[in-house]
């Protein structure tokens, strides 16, 4: 047992400790709370980056790090598993968390109590859901994630948030019941909840158990697809994103992507090539559901007048594209899908944060409407004095807006274009000379149409926000609010410049995912720590 | 016994679903609670129904698993009860907040324009 094995539990343990410590610090010392929170988030991000580095150096056997909690061997205890996919998602979640927290510094962390604790618990739930290798443990981390997202959604309570929060909670509770039913059915059919064990044993199920297992998998999928806002189950998303405070909405983008991550993980590992007659289970549903989601997102983007709704429908559109890609049942597409996932998550989060800044351009009268009752709770003077106002605020906002729009619509030269280009080129390559089947072309067509519609809608919104705003005083912009947007967009630019190396990492990730045998062997064969040898091993 | 359990779970599920689809938040929370009871019972029976079989053993050495009930669903159901209970309590708080701020217990936060 090396020290790096214990490190695997850190993305869960660290936010738990930090969040709990933060409860006991008085709200009046919010600067201190913020720094403690920021330190926790930064360390979590550094640990995630360290995982990527360790995996790339071949530190873990089979490039898969396994931590047996309480030293129980794999199918019986809960194994925490870190591989390329979960490390990538951990880094992504950490980056968005850093940006949201920086953004929340000026105002949003002060409009209610316990923002910082809830933020840490949300991070704990997200990280836990990403690294756990056990279905029931996944449920527990999902609930941790959701419970804190309920709290954060209500943060700075006003009527809109309470109303949205009540619907969000009711919907997610029902989805959680589906999750539990799915877990129960999977356990009844296969007798195990460990994902690696499931993937290994699914081929050997008899017909009755297989039917039960597939019913369970379908119930699980309902829970995850609700989270990732597939078409008939995604109506909560614009409401929740629109009502939440911007830093919270940016974190909700990650929560949505966790739903996608889990579906990818389960479908690529469990229903992979070795699944017997269950291979490719539910692919048609994922494909057509994903297409419907893309269509719904595209129409939503076109129909929305409000910038936040445009951002929400952009998130729905990206969910739709990712689900359709999974439904195409081409493991080769996984790398392109991951590139798109990273790029679109960064862009949607940046866009959501940016919207709040652009809303200040509007005339004072409409500004009064936009500022809800939490403005009365916040200390206006401290807001004015903290940070440095950026000169040329309007030009800066405009530039950032163009950057976001380019990535979201998938226009060259930024990462959105590379992601879409990667998807289409991989699709054309893997389907050979004959070209993809009709439904493949349908997807490609919808991909282009949705990008085109996104350009139209974003252009219309941009013209309204920046050019027809009249003679208003330039918006008051603080460095701590502008820099997170800059950071996220700079990462999109970095993703474009370093597309080659990022893409090759994702190619390896996709290879790991599709060769599930390695994952199964590493998790199931993870050695227990012998009682006597713990000390000597630790010294080495 | 299987029939009784199946009927109980079915009745709980159907009343829960009906209540969740109602417009008043109090009905919704009752529906959520019934659903959580149904789900908990459902998890419990995935270890199959046994009579007079303990889930744990204190006997040293190897045992005959056929003499014991499956302990895992019982562990799972305990966790599920706690989490379901906590989330329902949270929903109750939000419901009271909504009632206080909007002055109505409709799930949309406002009454419909035309009452039927």
Write a concise keyword list for the protein shown above:
heterodimer; A: 540 residues; mainly alpha; two-stranded antiparallel sheet; 73% helix; globular; disordered C terminus; B: 116 residues; Helix Hairpins; 3 helices
Q: Care to describe what's here?
A:
The complex is a heterodimer of chains A (540) and B (116). Chain A has helices spanning 3-7, 10-23, 30-56, 84-104, 115-131, 135-153, 159-190, 195-201, 207-227, 236-243, 246-269, 283-303, 307-327, 334-358, 364-370, 374-377, 380-385, 393-409, 415-430, 438-467, 479-497, 499-514, 516-524, 534-539, and strands at residues 65-68, 79-82. With 540 residues, chain A is mainly alpha-helical. Chain A has a domain at 282-371 and 388-497. In chain A, strands 1-2 form a two-stranded antiparallel ribbon. In chain A, 56% of the residues are buried. By secondary structure, chain B is mostly helical. Chain B has a domain at 2-47 and 70-102: Helix Hairpins, CATH 1.10.287. Chain B has three helices and no strands. Chain B has helices at 2-20, 25-45, 71-102. In chain B, helix 1 (2-20) packs antiparallel against helix 2 and helix 2 (25-45) runs antiparallel to helix 3 (71-102). Classes of the chains: A mainly alpha (540), B mainly alpha (116). The A-B interface holds A 136, 139-140, 143, 146-147, 150, 154, 157-159, 162-163, 165-167, 169-170, 173-174, 176-177, 180-181, 183-185, 187-188, 193 and B 20, 25, 28, 32, 35-36, 39, 42-43, 46, 72-73, 76, 79-80, 83-84, 86-88, 90-91, 94-95, 97-98, 101-102, 107-109.
Model regions low in confidence, pLDDT < 50 over at least 5 residues of chain A: 363-387, 534-540
First-residue to last-residue Cα separation of chain B? 44 Å
What is the gyration radius of chain B calculated from CA atoms? 20 Å
Helix content of chain A: over 70%
Provide the residue-averaged pLDDT of chain B.
88
Indicate the mean pLDDT of chain A. Answer: 86
Quaternary structure annotation: heterodimer
Radius of gyration of chain A: 23 Å
Strand order of the largest sheet of chain A: 1-2
Task: Tell me the major beta sheet of chain A.
Answer: 2 strands, antiparallel
Q: Globular, elongated, flat, extended or rod-shaped: what is the shape of chain A?
A: globular
User: What is the name of the CATH class of the domain at 2-47 and 70-102 in chain B?
Assistant: Mainly Alpha
Span between termini of chain A: 10 Å
